[in-house]
Design a protein that fits this description.
This protein has 13 helices and 13 strands. By secondary structure, it is of the alpha/beta class. Strand 4, helix 4 and strand 5 form a beta-alpha-beta unit. The chain is globular, with a radius of gyration of 20 Å.
Length: 351
């Protein structure tokens, strides 16, 4: 039997490390407030001019080097992001050009925080169908474009003016979301190989009924024009979130998907060697871990250092787990995530 295997992984972050204390200079928050609610201690933001596709290219180069694969061997790109460089086109073709790949197919995936899981399923299907031999899967985000401030130099500690009292009040209005996110990218090089190791299967779901619990209410074609000065003035271009609802969905649906997938594959949840869940909130992941009855040594979290990087969280965590020696040949890895849409699910990989 041939399965989709990971040949290499790579990551990239924004150029600026920003700790919670720095955000407290911009809004009414504190390191304690942020850590208590999310577990996030720091995140990375890009320099002005760095786009999502640029982070994808950096992560892809690192993954190719890790895999020992040349760019000419890549014959398909799958790029997952919810923060593309432009409204259109997507980042896939931009990465193909910037990375200097041949004119190969480049597919864009828009499943937000489950973008990596959906991208992995699509990649697996393409490889299994013989449509690709060596595939590059990328998840990358530049969330700093959502941030409701303009004084970036002041945030980064290189001069500039602090926000006025009015600006600080405006920024604070969005603090429950803005403190969570960071800019980063992760990439995998995938190839079909004979044997029992590789991707074992997926359980993915979608339900759009409650989409307004996490969405951007403007900058879309449900309205005309798709963005207005009033949208920008009222902050309707920034994501809105019903935190309680999202938390409840995540802590129930993610464990359910893992249990269903394990049952389908004849695997006990206790056989999972490592859970790598989407890094949206440390409190969510702790609740998922508890629901599954997994000990700490079987769970990998790194949201503390990166924040929520949406489609990049799982590949970044997987990369770090591999480099730390926690993913070895034969390790059974479970992935899980839930994101806006709503989309959620799980995947199993025998490393």
């Amino acid at each position: 039997m041939a399965r989709t295997c990971i040949l290499g992984t790579g990551i990239a972050t924004g150029e600026h490390l920003v700790k919670n204390e720095q955000l407290a200079k911009m809004m009414d928050t504190s390191d304690e407030w942020i850590r208590e609610r999310s577990g996030v201690e720091q995140r990375y933001y890009v320099e002005t001019g760095t786009a999502t596709s640029d982070l994808g290219v950096r992560a892809a180069k690192a993954a190719l080097e890790d895999a020992g694969v040349t760019k000419d061997e890549i014959d398909y790109v799958v790029f997952a992001t919810m923060t593309p460089d432009y409204y259109f086109p997507g980042c896939g073709g931009l990465l193909q050009h910037k990375l200097g790949l041949r004119t190969i197919p480049s597919l864009d995936i828009r499943q937000q925080c489950t973008g990596f899981l959906y991208g992995l399923q699509v990649s697996d299907a393409l490889l299994q169908a013989g449509q690709a031999r060596t595939l590059l899967l990328v998840g990358a985000e530049v969330h700093s474009g959502f941030m409701p401030w303009t004084s970036w130099d002041y945030l980064f500690g290189r001069g500039g003016e602090p926000p006025s009292a009015a600006e600080r009040a405006w920024i604070t209005r969005f603090r429950d979301r803005t403190v969570l996110f960071g800019d980063a990218g992760g990439a995998l090089v995938l190839r079909l190989q004979e044997g029992d190791r590789g991707v074992l299967g997926f359980k993915l779901y979608s339900d759009g009924e409650s989409f307004r619990d996490l969405y951007v209410p403007s900058v879309g074609f449900a309205q005309r024009p798709y963005v207005t000065p009033e949208d920008l003035g009222s902050g309707r271009h920034i994501p809105e979130m019903n935190g309680r609802s999202v938390f409840k969905m995540a802590v129930t649906r993610m464990p359910e998907a893992i249990r269903e997938l394990c049952k389908e594959k004849g695997i006990s949840v206790s056989e999972i060697d490592l859970l790598v869940a989407h890094q949206a909130n440390l409190r969510i992941n702790e609740a998922v871990q508890k629901a599954l009855g997994l000990p700490d040594e079987k769970v990998f979290n790194n949201i503390q250092r990166y924040g929520n990087t949406t489609a990049a969280t799982i590949p970044i965590a997987l990369h770090e787990a591999r480099k730390a020696g926690r993913v070895k040949p034969g390790t059974l890895v479970a992935f899980a995530g839930l994101g806006s849409g709503f989309h959620w699910g799980a995947a199993l990989l025998r490393a």
